[in-house]
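Exercise 7.
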Amino acid sequence: MTRTPGNPAAITQRGGAPYYYAPAAMPEPALYTAAEGPALAREPVMPRLLGFIASLYLASVCFFSTASESVAWVAQAVAIGVAFAWLTIGLIIYGQGITWTKPITLYVGFLVWSLTGYIVTIHAERFTLTLTTTAKVVLITWVMSQCIRTRRDLLICFFMVALTSVVVIALGADEIKRSATYRGDAGDSWAKDRASATLLGNANDLGIYGVTVVISGVFCLLGYRSVLVKGCGVLACAGGMYLVAASGSRTAMLGIAVGTVALYYYHLRQLGTNSMARKVAVFFIAIMLMAGAAYFIAKLPFFFRVREMMTDRGAVEKEPRLIYFFRSLEVVAKNPIFGLGLNGFAMHRLGTNHRGEGQYTHSSISESLSATGLIGFALFYGVYFVLFMQIRRLRKLDIPPKDRATLNMIMAYLLVVVAFSSVAVLFYHRLICPLLGACSGYVWYMEKMYGHRPAAAPQSVAAMS
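Solution. The predicted structure, written as tokens, is:
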């Protein structure tokens, strides 16, 4: 196996024509050592070592990060280990260069801009605490974007999240069962508190985790050929839906609805582009999928919370997220550049809980506007927009069906995250942000591998495996 003269990106096999593994202008050295192979002639069967190590951090978050503050240090210790592994294995052994993916660069920019909060905050200690938490999440998100490159790297991350659901459900079985079987009437104040008495502690955290588990299960179903892994994917989907049911979280219900529509639009409908019979089959599958999702949501024990929002005008007018959104606009009108600083909305007591304590806005839109002004808002949501545009461009190129389908799934997950952000604060979410960092690392690698190719003709995507 030798390099073709005049083109360092071409590798010639003995007795064969040259084939290409990367564009000639690819600025980063090969991601594999000589022992692993000089080029990506074919997709590796297993993830790289860095990809596997990075997936361990995601597992530690699911197990320890939100279960109890007394064990939160475990996920932080694993994060330090992942960073050390990247420094030693990535930089020294693999010879990878430091990369700045566009979405993660904007996320780092959001953190830097957040420092301006010291100018306007009314409580420096509380502000510093929130800033420190955000900085930790930004750092591990950046490291994840350095560790993940190949499709297998990304798949092991989602597989690990799916696998953790077995332990989460087993350890929190009693609390989750009580929540999932609750059949209270609308207005019972302790209904949602029941859902909060679970392993992950907070109902919305449990719901977001449940939706992420479902999506991870779909990645396993579509991304692996192994029957055993596909079986794990089925179990993860079922377990994730069970967790969503137990959480009582409207955030999770929104995620299931958006994820179902996005999965159809970006992946399933492409399966029917070859023939009329396939189009009809995919159409009916999509109808059943969406009807099933709607039936599942409508039968949830806490669906009355959504029904109240849709039928009771008074409930809409009293919805805290809507009230806080308009208050955040008032903050921006007075402080358009810096806002009030991180956690400023709560410190100024613009929102309060039932105990009279200051409360945040429960929305990344409102929180970014009130905390960091228009500039911070643009930086944070620029992360989602830039990643969306990168995937959109790559999907138009002539790339392997496996990678195209993977990009379709990332796009669906991204839209779910954007939906989450409208009803939850995700600045420092210890699972979603690093997982998006992993997706960004994979998207960057795809750009370097295939960004030079012309647009592809319309084609069907059969499967990821």
